[in-house]
Structure prediction request, 434 residues.
Amino acid sequence: MNPVTIESLDYEGHGVAHVEGKAIFIDGALPGELVTYVAYRRKPKFESAGVDAVLKASSQRVTPACPHFGVCGGCSMQHLDATAQVAAKQRVLEDAFWHIARLRPTTILSPIIGPAWGYRRRARLTVRKVDKKGCVLVGFYEKRRSFVAEMDSCAVLPAPISELLVKMRELIAALSIPDRVPQIEVAAGDMPTALVLRILEAISTDDAVLLREFADRHGVTIYLQTSGPESATLFHPPDAPMPSYHLPEFGVTLRFRPTDFTQVNHDVNRVLVRRALGLLDIQPGDRVADMFCGLGNFTLPLARMGARVVGVEGSAPLLERAKENAVFNGLAEHIEYHVANLFKVTPESLAAWGSFDKMLIDPPRDGAMELIKSLGGPGEAAPSRIVYVSCSPATLARDAGVLVHEKGYRLVAAGVANMFPHTSHVESIALFER
Prediction:
């Protein structure tokens, strides 16, 4: 196959080349490189491929730190210098603003960067008993395959968790139901790490002994989950505290169940919270809406700064944890909580919560279109500042287009937060002002 020159990276971190007018997306290739490739998916207008050989390497190519890179599908960009990864994500964000909404931020914020390794405090590990190999595997899926990668370490997990991978394999293999434990969810806060074992069949007395011994030996807390996330029940130690993490700059501690949504990267999250509140320019007495508030990651710091906060969240169990966190931190009197589906909000339901000086929006990947559409237009009452934290550049840009072109806001600033180093995931933050 003839070599091709890589022109750019796409939003998933694939190198982009063109052959006779057809786009070729090449996994593992970097801009400026000359490579040969092997296609694994062919469509009339594009092909998906993997690198066969790098004939001329980029100066930004590095040796991946993880021996499982290329097989394990957990990371996709370890071959690219960490600083260049952040720059690529910034370009993805800027391109999304321009191509989707014809917008450019007035100011590009400096990227929020944390540790490149050992950062991932949350992980959902697949468990599979492999008879052909005579063992149990615990880890992430292989790249583009449904097999579980055979891994004895993980460079993006904190070292104590990475060191448990082989021990978890041995534990599950020793149980009476090794083929009935499909998943282990890891949740590491500032307190001992929690392991949630998804079990499809009741454990035996001998299994219970093994689990207790494992928890005591390795200083972890074990939960058993029989169905949905809310079914996760503390197993051992029976008096273990809830997992928690601390935001020291604001003097708040957030407790959570191990199946609750929390940010995976605590170091980046701390800086992200600080930046969000700084962009909002909180003044004592401001009435601030925290939309998609979760268990209070932004709500509690907002209240600590003297704001009167209205937190809105669609998950009733998660909002209960938010209320408990407000009480635990002595901030309940400053916060008003509502359970509501923000994907179905209307101008009338939004107005029922009163007027807001400022608003923070932190939605899932689907974005916040209905909420944005429910805000007052030019000349109508609406928050003077909106900070939007996003895990999808495309939906952020789409929503930004409505905020700017229909609701009378300006896109003042935007930048990325490298929440997931070595992956193509782009977390970002944007400030809108009237």
Q: What stands out?
A: The chain has a mean pLDDT of 96. The radius of gyration is 23 Å.
